[in-house]
């Protein structure tokens, strides 16, 4: 009965209730591979148990399909915003430029015209995933607001997305090389005792002259830094690496060996690699973070005097673009930023301006290529203790001396450089004006020269007013440094713009343009010596040494091969001794540039020996640098090379032939010539190995290459 009733019940069910049964499906059921075959990534025959599990004598477990994703319903707000974006983009694409507007020529543009800023909107700062971007196009700002709101809607509905760490930028190695792939960044971190010492050296020797960081804000991270970099935020790690590097730059070789237990060169290489690796890991080209930019600027400052100045200027252009993308060219108050952030951005922006102006002049450019429409105010005269992140009211200048004095002075000079384009060229032309004949041209108009002289006088008065308001010689070494720097700037510029006929050497040792250029080279090196002597006991000598221009020194050395008598010649030989005393790296003749310089010095000294012996009957005592250069040269071939051409004009030997300009007319531009561009193999190929100055690797600070 039971057996007969069962089939009848099952057959009658569908007939009596047909609406309950599911509709028939022609789609076959998908059979998935078993769990073991999926894990081993081998083909499964999809039988249970499968052949693979049978052979392995293990339990065959069928895998289950992933649950179907919940279909997202159309979001009305999202669709409305998307339609709004489409309308804005259509409006932006169809917008026609005004045909009546013409672009003025570069020569007609004012040196510093801020009328554009009166009607231009202040722009907008956009924060996104820890990054900050600046947008000053009103249309694109509206579009970006819509896109950001759309993204927030999508993110709020999608809870399955996992936020990952910052992905390193694959383009960053074009600027900073590929670092040290076989070295972990943790291995480059200094020992616990060295962390504190390097930090203190930075505070004593570097921070007073740069004021990029806010010490009270960064100080708490030192406790974590002593234990290693693992627990530090990655941007703080990069910033501290740059601080350690800059501290080593501020040490001399003996101090570094005594403090760290290894050579200065090894320390520079170690912490330079640390900065590069940290910046690459952060993707600094696309991560717009103030701390990362601080690390990059400090790294750029550390390159002064150590790397090719032209390549460093190019890298500074990248820094300017990053800063501009962060909106640092617009004052923080106009952007509605908190007072503390606005002040720190001012400090960093003006430091970038100073570095860029300096590198531009050293690279032979008459004007820094900064964005034209910037209005960032100069920093306030405030100590670090006077500003704090929680401040809500704008800061006011402190009356009296502060730790900002040197930076305020330098920033005022930077403003002069930016507002007075072409001043350096005018000075050089002024120095030539006494030697230009009617056939060669009339030279710069006297009215323009007088205007530039008045501009320089105004700049000097401005610097003096800053010292009167905020400087106190008894307030510390940085105030004494500021006083000396103001004197150095004014004296050097006034010497350049003073006509040759009004100088004491006129008519005596200075009769030609070449004589005047030689005098300028000697005076420039004498200014360097004055800076060395005034800073060596204050811990700021690194700043003076970083401004040494080997091209000027090499020019003077080449002239000494032909000039044997006179007061200027004696002053020149005095500077040869000073330079080799303060720049012992020049004794490294494995560097082809240094070896070529050694050839000049040895040839000039041989000529000087002969001249003094003929005049006095006795040979002079051989200076220490001549003995060291003779022993450091690889063989005697260099000592018998022909005397360098007269005049020696690095990087411009063929310019006169092509342009019809007399060779000696190029001498006055010696400050902007690049000795590294000359083929120093003309002295032979006896110098093997070594690296003649650091190139930028792929385009960045990579491995060194030969000159």
UniProtKB/TrEMBL annotation:
CDD domains: fungal_TF_MHR, GAL4. It is found in: Nucleus. One of its GO terms (molecular function) is DNA binding. It comes from the Eukaryota. PROSITE patterns: ZN2_CY6_FUNGAL_2 (PS50048). Residues 1-26, 156-175 are annotated as: Disordered. Its main location: nucleus. GO terms for biological process: DNA-templated transcription. Keywords: Metal-binding, Nucleus. Pfam families: Fungal_trans, Zn_clus. InterPro entries: Sec_Metabolite_Reg (IPR050613), XnlR_reg_dom (IPR007219), Zn2-C6_fun-type_DNA-bd_sf (IPR036864), Zn2Cys6_DnaBD (IPR001138). One of its GO terms (cellular component) is nucleus. Transmembrane segments: none annotated. Residues 1-19 have a biased composition (Low complexity). Residues 33-61 form the Zn(2)-C6 fungal-type domain. PANTHER family: UNCHARACTERIZED TRANSCRIPTIONAL REGULATORY PROTEIN, ZN(II)2CYS6 TRANSCRIPTION FACTOR (EUROFUNG). This is Fungal-specific transcription factor domain-containing protein. The lineage of its organism: Eukaryota, Fungi, Dikarya, Ascomycota, Pezizomycotina.
